[in-house]
Structure formats: C-alpha cells, structure tokens
Specification:
Layout: H1 15-44, E1 53-56, E2 84-87, E3 92-100, E4 106-115, E5 120-125, E6 131-134, E7 137-140, H2 149-160, E8 166-171, H3 173-181, E9 185-189, E10 193-197, E11 202-206, E12 209-213, H4 215-223, H5 232-250, H6 259-269, E13 270-272, H7 276-286, H8 291-294, E14 295-299, E15 302-305, E16 308-311, H9 313-322
Parallel strand pairs: 3-8, 5-14
Antiparallel strand pairs: 1-2, 3-4, 4-5, 6-7, 8-13, 9-12, 10-11, 15-16
C-alpha cells in the first residue's frame, strides 16, 4: 500500500521494566498482607487488659486471727480504710508457672513478670516449702495446690503482694516430649545426679557437665531434688537455667517443622487460664528478645528452719520492688511473709 503511512510497531517492554513491575506488584501484595495481618492481630489478639489497681488487705496477726477478706487476686471496688491500694504500671504482666507431677501436687512454682514495653522479663522461683499462712494455719505453699491452680495463685498473691494475671500448669512429662521433638537440649548439668524412686518411676543417673540431654534426662534434671546439698533451692536454680536453655533452643528456624507436634504436646500436657488471643499477643511481644540479656532469674531468699523455708523479709521486699510492677514503691506491709 504505497503512499499510506506505516503504523509504528508496538514496542514490547524490556525485561527490566517487566521485572520492576513484578516487584512493585509483589511488594504491594505483601504490604496488603502485612496491613491485613496487623489489623487482624489487633482485632483477634488485642493487648490484654488487667485491673489498674491492686487492693491488699492487712496481714493476719497469727493463727488465732481470722483470715483477712479480699477479692480474687487483690481486685477491689471499694477498699476498706485499712487496705493498701497500689497502682500498676502499664504493659507489665505476670504469669504463674506450675510444674506438676503425675502423682499430684506442684513440684515447681515460678512467677514470670513480662514488661512488654521494655522487652524485659523476670523469672522468680518460689521454693515449694515456703511457709504461708492460710485458713488459720501455717502450711507449705505447694500444699495449696490441693485447691487447684487458682488456690496457688491466691497464695502467691497474698504472700508477695503481686497480682497474678495468668497461670500455666505443666505436667513435667511435657519437658521430656518437647526435648525429644527438637532433637535434645544442650545443657551444663551442674552436679552429678544419682537418684531412684520406683514409686514415681523416677530413675536419674546423669553425670555433671555440658551435654546433649534427651527427654528422659531432661525430665530428671528438672525433678532431681536430693542431688543438691541445698535441696529445693539448688534445684530451682537449675530449673530456671534449663528453662532458658530450652526456650533458646526451641525458638529457632530449624524447629519450624516441629510446630504442629509442639502444639499437640502443649495441648496434651499444659493447662492454662490464658486465652488463646492473649497467648498470640504475648508471642508477638516476645519476638526479637535476647534471652541472654532480657531475662533475669532469681529465687526468694530465706533459710531452712524445719519444716519450712522461711523468707528473708528485706531481701524479698527488695526483689518485689525491683520487678517494677507498681508505679509506687511497695511497702513492707504489702507482703504477708510469716514466721511460725
């Protein structure tokens, strides 16, 4: 067709342009996913809410005194004039961790405190033989488990003046299964452990030193009490160290494939009053925490005066204040430490 203008050939975009468009679309989709995920997290896993004030009744004067009245875990709408009212800091939460053996009774009592804003956490061991005053008599704190997890939470709150927001009860066999599922845990066993108790089907023979523990040995490390000259005090220090090692070696990319089995184990061996959406929220807050620097561990100081572990009033008060749960300094009368 002479004389007619030639139509310009349609230019195809270069591979570089196509790549740029592809990346742009991918980033846009990812942005939508992130925004949608963030929105869903705030809808289905919002920040937990707790009472901003804690009301603490006066300390009973002794076995002849009637138990002081208080609402569950310290909450109170109209406190009596002789009650102490403390104001909580925002973004600080507490959780009671209980280790329970098959035979019943709580073998391990720990209190966790998580400052989600500062990304700092504390784990405090409460010796199982710690003396408390409850229902008109002195008793060991682990015996309060006869009333269930809530009863232990009440006893801890009354003893330390600390609100217990949540509790988690773990059958000690869970440690065995979790350790096996992640291929073992490297841990420095502090002492030679040799102990047998056929009644509990407990046979512990583990040499001291850094080693890879399988599930059975890990359970033995958590449970061996007579392996230490200081009995339960020595064991609680080892338990805290082992829990840190377990957490660090569980939360790794290599264990992504074990998520389903780990969830099944938790469902089988763990009881808790913490709602699932709160668990999700706390999990997001823990992302990126360096447990070597962000986690402090300790135990309630005291001395063994048979048949109880009796607390050091000043040392425990200092520890409670160091946790930063309250806006104000916690006075001694907030703690209900007793000495038979």
């Amino acid at each position: 067709m002479s004389g007619s203008p030639k139509r310009a050939a349609k230019r195809r975009p270069s591979s570089l342009v196509r790549l740029a468009k592809g990346l742009y679309i991918t980033l846009f989709i990812l942005s939508l996913i992130v925004v949608a995920g963030y929105a869903a997290l705030n809808i289905f896993a919002p920040k937990p809410t707790v009472d901003g004030q804690v009301t603490i009744p006066p300390k009973p004067s002794g076995p002849s005194a009637p138990p002081a009245a208080t609402d569950s875990l310290g909450g109170s709408s109209t406190p009596a004039p002789d009650h102490l009212v403390l104001n909580r800091r925002e973004d600080v939460f507490t959780c009671l961790l209980l280790g329970v053996a098959d035979q019943g009774g709580t073998d391990t009592i720990m209190l966790g405190v998580f400052d989600t804003k500062a990304k700092q956490a504390s784990l405090i061991s409460i010796p199982r033989d710690t003396v408390v005053y409850q229902n008109g008599k002195y008793r060991k704190i682990n015996s309060t488990y006869a009333g269930g997890e809530e009863a232990v939470a009440e006893a801890v709150h009354d003893l330390l003046g600390i609100p217990v927001d949540y509790w988690v009860s773990v059958n000690l066999k869970a440690f065995s299964e979790i350790v096996n599922q992640i291929g073992g845990v490297y841990f420095d066993v502090p002492v030679d452990m040799d102990y047998e108790d056929p009644y509990q089907d407990l046979y512990i023979h583990i040499p001291a030193g850094y080693q890879l523990l399988n599930g059975k040995k890990a359970e033995g490390v958590m449970r061996c009490r007579s392996c230490y000259a200081s009995a339960d005090i020595g064991r609680t220090a080892t338990q805290r160290a082992f829990l840190v090692a377990l957490a660090k070696q569980t939360i790794t990319p290599s264990n992504v494939g074990n998520v389903t089995s780990l969830i099944n184990t938790f469902s089988k061996y763990v009881r808790s009053n913490m709602p699932l959406n709160d668990m999700v929220w706390f999990g997001t807050q823990a992302i990126g925490m360096d447990l070597d620097t962000a986690l402090n561990t300790s135990s309630l100081e005291g001395e063994w005066i048979s048949p109880y572990w009796q607390l050091d009033d000043e040392a425990v008060l200092d520890l409670v204040n160091s946790l930063g749960i309250y806006q104000e300094q916690v006075p001694a009368r907030a703690l209900h430490i007793v000495h038979p």
